[in-house]
Amino acid sequence: MNQKTDHLQQLSEIKTMMERSSRFLSLSGLSGVFAGFFALAGAAAFYVYVNKQMATGYRAIAHSLPVDLDLDFYTFCFADAGITLFLALAVGSYFTTRKARADGQKIWDPAVLRFMINLFIPLATGGIFCLILLFKFRWFGIIPPCTLIFYGLALLNGSKYTLDEVRWLGISEIILGLIGCLYLGYGVTLWAIGFGILHIIYGLIMYIRYEAVPKEKKYW
To answer: What is the pTM (predicted TM-score) of this model?
Structure first.
């Protein structure tokens, strides 16, 4: 019986070693939690700006094609998005680096590089596509749901090199983005749900499952 248990333990250790060599398993759930809070703060700031500084509400802007917006609006939007992204990346890098060191893993290895490349390609494509929609066609309302769709595709594309929860987060983002394309007036609300609430939920799930348990029980 003990010999059988030893064999099973050895197989489990071999499987863990293979996963660590091919997948980025040090992604911290706390990164998602904080990214979600930053996204909610960014969405709230946008709503306050639109309601106080502009004569028309967001729904009117979302359904306008082409939309006529001034330089101040674009400046605020890019500043709001830039600050939100910077804070999310900074805090995410901190928690992920801390988790990698706690797990005895390298911060940069081939698995991390594969994950980043597969994540970046759909993200970059989506970013360029949204800029074309904004400056070529001046269609602002479609951009929030499009960011959700391309972000979901990026997560789905990179999920095979990291934790399984990332795949389901990606699918959820895509679904929200498609709903947002049908209801443009609720695009920012769905954006807040996707980048904010879903990040918090999935981040907590990942933290509880992989970080808030004894080390020998991780990655089940």
So the answer is: 0.86
